[in-house]
Write a structure and sequence with these properties.
Elements (H helix, E strand, L loop, with lengths): L1 H26 L1 H15 L7 H21 L3 H17 L3 H22 L4 H45 L3 E4 L2 E7 L4 H18 L3 E8 L5 H16 L3 E5 L3 H10 L7 E3 L2 H12 L9 H11 L1
Parallel strand pairs: 2-3, 3-4, 4-5
Antiparallel strand pairs: 1-2
């Protein structure tokens, strides 16, 4: 009971002081907001923003911070921070602009408290004890939202790059070519398999030429993924011809004990296409004799 009686006056005093801070910031809203905008302009934090954007964003952020201070809840700040981070990334705003703007607002609030309570240091200390945790929490919310949005954009870009780096090309009816370039990790190998199987189904392919000339190395996991891709393609009704196996990769596959019998291998891409044409019953015939072709090339020159 004594503990409750001891804490009650302190809680009441904190509540009263918190409300006093809220009323102060609302009363000085336009003055402090203009100071904030001026300081951000001086620091170059508003580059790329229109006057309308600056007006709307500064009002919303200012008022959101006051609501957090008054209620002690941050759901509104979290929602707005995510939206602001998303818009900021899309607009090309930098980390310095996003975080720097919030830090500047924190300083503007803090200086106003120093000016207001400069004659009462004890009151100032109590006010800062209430204000600073709220300001720091809002800064961390904004920073986290911005970092998460950046990571989301990076993941989307990486996904797009992976898709571009493993294009499935249709050469002719029922024939696909999958040129693989660069290092293959587990995630890319899985994506490659899924993309190939989808294309086999949509294109109704019967033969796939998988060229790995541009793959520098293959470990046991990647070798296993290649074999699984070949097996999965067979289940989809397509034969896979692997081309471009380097001597180093060939030795690795043998050392790893990969079942080469499951894979149709041909030396290079051109040879793989020729074998694929044979599977499909196509025959390439020269239209002109070689002598006539040379003669035509001379005339063109």
């Amino acid at each position: 009971m004594k503990r409750k009686e001891t804490n009650e006056p302190s809680n009441e005093a904190d509540t009263a002081l918190r409300q006093e801070l809220v009323e102060h910031f609302r009363e000085k809203r336009e003055l402090l907001r203009q100071q904030w905008v001026e300081q951000m302009t001086t620091k170059g934090l508003l580059a790329g923003m229109t006057r309308e954007d600056i007006e709307n964003e500064s009002i919303t952020i200012y008022d959101t911070c006051i609501v957090c201070l008054e209620t002690g809840e941050y759901e509104g700040a979290q929602t707005y921070a995510m939206r602001m981070a998303e818009r900021g990334v899309l607009r090309g705003m930098t980390t310095e602009q996003i975080i720097g703007g919030i830090l500047t607002l924190r300083d503007v609030y803090g200086r106003s408290l120093f000016e207001w309570y400069q004659q009462d240091m004890e009151r100032l200390s109590a006010a800062l004890d209430i204000y600073e945790p709220v300001a720091n929490k809002i800064i961390s919310i904004v920073a986290l939202a911005f970092v998460e949005e950046r990571e989301k954009v990076v993941r989307q870009q990486q996904e797009a790059i992976r898709e571009l780096s493993t294009p499935v090309l249709q050469v002719r009816d029922q024939l696909l070519i999958l040129p693989i370039i660069g290092v293959i990790d587990t995630h890319r190998a899985r994506q490659l398999t899924e993309q190939l199987l989808r294309t086999i189904r949509t294109r109704r392919a019967k033969v796939v030429v998988m060229d790995i000339t541009g793959v520098p190395a293959v470990d046991s996991k990647i070798a296993g993924h290649l074999v699984q891709t070949v097996d999965a393609s067979k289940l989809m009704g397509a034969t896979v011809i692997v081309t471009g196996i380097s001597p180093e990769i060939a030795q690795t596959l043998v050392t790893l004990g990969v079942d080469i019998a499951k894979m149709n291998t041909v030396g290079d891409l051109q040879g793989g296409i020729e074998v694929a044409n044979q599977f499909l019953g196509y025959k390439v015939v020269r239209t002109y004799p070689e002598a006539d072709l040379n003669h035509k090339e001379k005339k063109v020159q």
